[in-house]
Structure formats: structure tokens, C-alpha cells
């Protein structure tokens, strides 16, 4: 009798479903909060003006992390310079121009799969091609190019999705007025795909700023207490600096390590927020 | 009756989409300054016929065609660059599509792309075309608000103005009133009848009454064949073909 009621009580099942879905969400959010809390709690005390602007001293045990911050900024900017135009143009070609045949589908599939290649493989590839074959040496140029190849699939995939989400009717209206295909893309499609493309940029920036493996062989300097002078110089970078301090250098204070992690986190977060603000602006202006 | 000077001559024109034979050796003359109605059930080929005239079928993959469409003596599939053709042959779609731009920018979208950048000239185009499409009085005080905030009927008239702004001499209508209320429909039809002085118009419609109201001649399509083409009065009173009669009297379709 009781069993029967239980089975056929839609309120009961509704409650169970709700509880299940809610606790799954909590389980997802909890680790994020926990990580943030630990990093902030342990790293906060290290943050100071000197920490952010000084060179590291005494085998990285003292001083600041300025060159690593600068190196990361250079790498992110370099990555975007190489990957953004290339990725967006390729996505435009694939979405708007390429005929839908076996080859195109194969290319699209390959691009999606590229996103799943482990980052250390990109690192090795960069070492082989840019550092050794093209003789860029271990340099910002080689590192940016390696990271650019790594984030290309992200940019291409998100840009393609953004272009696909622009209604087909916009293109038809533009074409029906005798406007050329490129102008149609430029004026009737791209402006409305921008928010989506920016999402791709956010993801790409976060990935480029945070990855360690691809820069390991291509750019990162173990300990370089001065700023790089050209794109052919090595540079320090935050994720690698963090890795080195945590595993290679004995007796580094906990707060210095967590402070570095906190700075990396804040940098990535603020870049994300910037991109989100820009995106929200575009969204407000362009609505359909 | 209008002057019988052919503007468009379609000769034995066939269209295939992959294996589907969508238009079967159709020959039609469209006269200058007339409104030609095209009616028929779905899949009858009437829209394919319409989209052959501004080469919009070319957008569909696996499109093939045979035969000729001649506009003012030029074969549109051979002699005219596709952009120039579409500038001369405007199109109004079934659903009003306002671009997410201001009313003003919607109208000047075409002219801007074709190189008009003088502000006064653009303002002139906007006023003139919005007046022609009976929208000016309703929007003249808010030209710089979004075109998407207009009602469906207003948006469709905005689309009409946008089409007029590139100065076509032919306008194609693809079921232009299928989503509109009777009053908005009446406004579009009023504009169409007034346009006869200036433009050659072809109207595809699912609404046979609309064809009867506005078109000078009416063509009945069925399964990709042109069954009958005659003056609208004759088609609706003494159709020669039994299938035409069945369709307009509502026995199928």
C-alpha cells in the first residue's frame, strides 16, 4: 500500500529529482570554492607591491615574480596575435564558403579532435618545429606559436558555432540586395557573431595563460631575473614558475607558492571578466 | 490592361535539386509593370520559379538548371554578374526579417554596401522609400530605434523599403503576407498596386484570394509544371484546366 503511494506520487519523485539535481550542482561548485579559499587563505599574505613588481632573489625564495607576470602577458598576447586571425578566418571559410562534402567534414572532425590532444604533445611538437627546425630557439616566439596551435581548435570551434547561430535569413536578406558574399559576411554575419567569438577568446586566453607543458620546452626559463628584450628571448611564465617553485626548489615558503598561484588566478579571471564585459556590451547592442 | 512588353522571358526553364525535378520546362513571359501572381499547392514549384529569377536557387546545394531566363535581353545565368542581377531584382521574404540595426540602418543597408555614403543622400533614400512603403508616418520620429521593435506588419513594410532602396525594377514577393494580419496585408497590397507604375512585380502566394485581388495575370503551378497562365479574371472565373478549377475552388491544396 505504502509502496503503491510512493510509486505514483509525482510530488515525491519531483522532490527526489530536485534534490538530486541540486546536490549535483553543489558537488560541482564546492571544489571550486574550496580551491579558491585555500589559495586565497594561504597566498594572500604574500601579496604585496614588491611581490608583484620585483625580480626574484635568492633562487626564487625571496623577492617578487615580476618577470613571470610579464612573461605570461607576452605569451598570451603573442598567442592571440597568431591564433585569433588565423582561427577566425579558417572558421569563416569552413562555415560560409566550404562545400559540405567528405573532405570538409573530415577537416571539421580533425579540428574538434585537435582540442583533445594532450598539451605536452603540443609542447614536443613546438620543440621539434619551432625551437629546433625553424631555429627560433627557446623563445617567446616559439612559445607563442606553440600555444597558438594549441588554442586554434578552441577558437575555430567557438567561432564556427557563433557563425552558425546567426540566422540564415540575415545572409539571405543581404544577398537578395545584391550584396557580395564577403560583404554579407562582413556586415550581416560577423557583427552578430562577435559575442560568440569573444567567448572563444576567453577560453583561449585562459588556456594559454595556464598551461605549463607546451611552454616547458619552448620558452620557459627556470630562473631569469631580468625581463626579456626581444621575442627571441626566453621568458619566465607564471605556471612554469609555480611548477618549479613547488617541485624543484627546496625551502620555498608556502605563502610565496600560493601567492604565485593567486596572481595567476587573478590574471586569468580578470582577463575573463574583461572579455565578458565586452561581450555583454555587444549583446546589449545587438539583439534579435 | 498594361502594356504587353515582356520584361522577363523564361524559356523552357527546368530546375533540379539533386534528383528532384522541381521546375519542369516552364516558359513564361512577364510583362513590364504588371503584377504576375503565382499560385499552387506546396511543392508546386511556384517558389522555385520565383527564386530562379534572382538566382536564389543557386544558394541551395545540388542545384542544377537548364534553359534560359532573359531579362531585358540578357541571359541572367550567363550575361549578368549575380550581384548586379539581384540589385535589379529585389525580393521580399515570407517572414519579415529586420536586421538587428536601427530602422534607418536597415533601409540603407543595401545602398551603403553599394557605395553610397553621403549622409544627405542616405537620409533622402530613407524618407523616400519609407514613404513609398507606407511606413514613414509611423516611424519618422524614431528612425534610430531598433527595426526589430516594430510590429510584424511594420517590419514587412520596412523590408519592402529596404528592397526599394537599392532601386530594383523588379520585385519578387515570396508569400509576403503569410504571417500578417488583414490590415497589414491590406497595406502591403495597397503598396503593390501603387508600385505598378514603377516596378514589375511577381507575387507568390498561398492565398488565392490575394492573387485574385492584386495580380493582373495569374499562373497556376502544380508538381513543377506550369498548368495555366491567363488574365486573373479568366483564371478565377473560367479556368481552362480542370486542375486549376479544382485548386481555386478549394477541392485540393
SSE ordering of chain B:
EEEHEEHEHHHHEHEHEEHH
Q: Describe the strand arrangement of the main beta sheet of chain A, using strand numbers.
A: 1-2
From the 3D structure, determine the CATH topology of chain B: Rossmann fold
Secondary-structure-derived class of chain B: alpha/beta
**How is the biggest beta sheet of chain A arranged?**
2 strands, antiparallel
β-strand percent of chain B reads: 25-35%
- Give the averaged pLDDT of chain A, no decimals: 86
The beta-strand count of chain B equals: 10
The number of distinct helices of chain A, counting runs of at least 4 residues, comes to 12
Order of helices and strands of chain A: HHHEEHHHHHHHHH
Rg from Cα of chain A: 24 Å
- Our measurement of the CA-to-CA distance between the termini of chain A, rounded to an integer number of angstroms, reads 54 Å
**Structural category of chain A:** mainly alpha
Flag low-confidence runs of chain A.
none
The CATH homologous superfamily name of chain B equals P-loop containing nucleotide triphosphate hydrolases
Oligomer: heterodimer
CATH superfamily of the largest domain in chain A: MetI-like
Number of domains of chain B: 1
Low-confidence parts of chain B: none
The count of strands of chain A amounts to: 2
Beta fraction of chain A: under 5%
